[in-house]
Amino acid sequence: MKQDYIKILFEQYLEGKTNQEEEKILLDYLADPANGDSEFHAVMDKAWKKQNHQADYTPEANQGLNQIWNKIEERKPKSRSLYPILKYAAAIVVVISAAFGWYAYKKAQEPIQAAIAFLSKTTQKGEKVKLILPDSSIVYLGAGSKLTWPSHFVKGKLRNIRLEGEAFFEVKHDTSSPFIVHSGQMQTRVLGTSFNIYAYPKDGTFSVAVRTGKVKVSENREGKLKQLSLLTPGMKLLYHLKAHDYTVRNERITEVNAWIKNSFAFKDVALPNMFKSLERYYNVHFELKTNKFDHCRFNATFTNKSIGNIMEEIRVMSGKKMKYKIDTANKTITVWGEGCQ
């Protein structure tokens, strides 16, 4: 009868229903060398399962419970000197009981986290927009680009956004919340600075150029992050998608975000790639009738010029060997000729 009473008392203790006097009876019983502890496993297990609405059932928690059972089994009495062992078992009971209460308290205190919505903006060819992010950072989004960002940033957490295309960033300084731009396999991390990212997947080369501050550029391949370079003002990193390699060169500060003011700078750029950029900037389509221009590379800057004026300048740079025709109605430019001089 006493043992049945103790089992009931034990279960009530785990449920937090015992008073001080009952707890003393229970712990005195557990500390008595004449009593074992294994018979209470079923009661312990039952009490644990009753907490399924508030207990932590992660693998770590289950592993911890199993370790407790194992320790009790390992210390099963082999002699009459049982007092310290049973004292240990009683302590385990107190710990587990306290844990049940802690799980309930922890769950009750957890705030309900609303799912963070993500916003995105996609620009068309010939379009560029200015965006203000939730942290007051400013983004100038280039033509034919897409930016994705969370509806709000959490203080002390990473400010992660995603870019496909080109954008110039003026990042609000916050040392506790690094600002990270993900663009394909390239990752750019800053605290507060201004920089330009060019990341059109079809172009084969991504770039990061810094106007102010410092940025860290890394490569993310199959979930493994590898730092490529730290860039300071006037430095530009070019990352080649197929080869997975990169180069770093100097860039004029004034050219980093020149496209915002309709000034387009090309430095040692192949003519077909130049045409790809001009397609986006001017919302036109190029039709190349020959591949003789594939290896033609140019250095050029065009500021506030019409596409007609730009094409004429390129024709002159080619030694007048390139020929073109502009179809204004269809926004198409046909190019042919003998290649470069």
UniProtKB/TrEMBL annotation:
Source organism of this protein record: Pedobacter roseus
Chain segments annotated as transmembrane: 85-105
InterPro entries documented for this protein: FecR, FecR_C, Ferrdict_sens_TM
This protein's name: FecR family protein
The entry's keywords: Membrane, Transmembrane, Transmembrane helix
GO molecular function: sigma factor antagonist activity
Gene3D superfamilies in UniProt: 2.60.120.1440, 3.55.50.30
Domain FecR protein: 122-216
